[in-house]
Give the backbone structure.
Amino acid sequence: MKNILGIVALSFILYLSPINIDNAKADHYKKGIFFSDPYVSGCIFDLLDASFGKKCAQSSLKYYFHEGKHRGSMNKAFDKCYAELRRTGFRKYRGFNRDDFSVECWDYN
């Protein structure tokens, strides 16, 4: 019984622990299936592999924005998308450059 009480008390303390403020204030966009805010997503395309075609070799996460609520949020979302894809490209592909690979991001409304 004491073990269960200890586990409940510990989980309650962890539940009330302070939140990382940087992550907490940035995540307030509507992310539902219906009536969600627009988002930016992107892909890395391999330009050398002809058999691969125009298929997405590596996709990015969704970065939500709402220009009506937050001015400049669309530009920040595009910057995050490009930065993530470039970082992933340098980490995953040997000889990652602009001649052999194309990085593209676009918005979905």
